[in-house]
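Worked example 3. Consider a protein that binds flavin mononucleotide.
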Amino acid sequence: METLAAILTRRSIREYTPQALPDELVQKLLTAAMQAPSAGNQQPWHFVIVTERQQLDALEDVLPFGKMLKTAQLGIVVCADLKLEKHRGFWVQDCSNATMNILLAAHALGLGAVWVSIHPLEERVIGAKQILGLPEQIVPLCVVPVGYPVRPPQPPEKRFTASRLHFNHW
Ligand SMILES: Cc1cc2nc3c(=O)[nH]c(=O)nc-3n(C[C@H](O)[C@H](O)[C@H](O)COP(=O)(O)O)c2cc1C
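Given these inputs, the predicted complex is written out as C-alpha cells:
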C-alpha cells in the first residue's frame, strides 16, 4: 500500500476473526516498529509479544478500554527502558512513533490494530507491569491488539481543519 494512502485510510480496529497471524507478518510489524525515528536515535523500546490467552485476558482485566484483547490473536506491549534513554523524557515520543509504525504497518498488511493506553495511568502501569513481569526500569506505554479485521475498515472522516493552521504567527 502506498504510504499516503495508508495514513489516510487507517482506522482503529477493535474486532478480529479467529484466524491466526503468520509469524512473518508479526515480524514485519516489529521490524516497522523498530525502524521508527527516536530522539538522538536512542531507540529506548522493548516489545512484549503476548500470545497466551491467559495473559491477554489478564491484561484486559486491568485495561478498562481494552476489551478488544478478548478476540485479538496477539497484543504487542510497547515499553520503554528508562536506562536506555540518552535524552531524558523523550521516551514517550519515541515509543509513540514505534506504536504508530505498528498501526500503519498492520493496516498496510491487511491486519487490524488499535492503540490501547497504559501510560500515564498509574493503575494500568502497575497492573500491566505485574502481569508481564516487567523489571523496575521498564515502563509500558500501550498495548496494540492485532488480528484480522472482522469487516473492512470504514474510511475515516476527513480531519483536515484549515482553522488549525497558523502561518508564521498565531
Ligand atoms: C494515545 C492514544 C490512546 C488511545 N487509547 C485507546 C484505548 O485505550 N482504547 C481504545 O479503544 N482506543 C484507544 N485509542 C484509539 C483512539 O480512540 C482512536 O485512534 C481515535 O478514536 C481515532 O480513530 P481512528 O484510529 O479509527 O482514526 C487511543 C489512541 C491514541 C492515539
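Take a moment to read the result before moving on. The beta strands are 45-50, 74-81, 112-113, 116-117, 138-147. The mean pLDDT is 97.
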